[in-house]
Structures are given as structure tokens and as C-alpha cells.
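Sample pair:
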Amino acid sequence: MRKVNASREALFRLNGIPPAGMAVSMALQHLVSMIVGCVTPAIIIANTIPAERECEPEIK
């Protein structure tokens, strides 16, 4: 079995293994950025569509 050396410099190595706390925080940051990237276009498109003010048509 290979000895694992977790350090901050491991982030910049090809097969580096970062410390567990840093790996978890990077994973959460990646997850949030994926959610924001998927939700933002839908919000932008939804804001360009004019919203109707009433649900029922006016009766004259």
C-alpha cells in the first residue's frame, strides 16, 4: 500500500490528494456552482417573459 501525503501543495499536483477538510469544502463549492449554473438561465428566461397580472380574463 502506498503512503498518502495530504498537503495544500497536493491541489496543484496531477495525482495529489488534498486534506479531507479541504476536499469537502471544494466539493461543496463545486456543487453550489453547478446549481447556480443550472438555475440562472431559467431565471433569466423567466424574467424576459411578461407576466400576466390576473389569472382570469376580464368580463365586460
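The chain has a mean pLDDT of 81.
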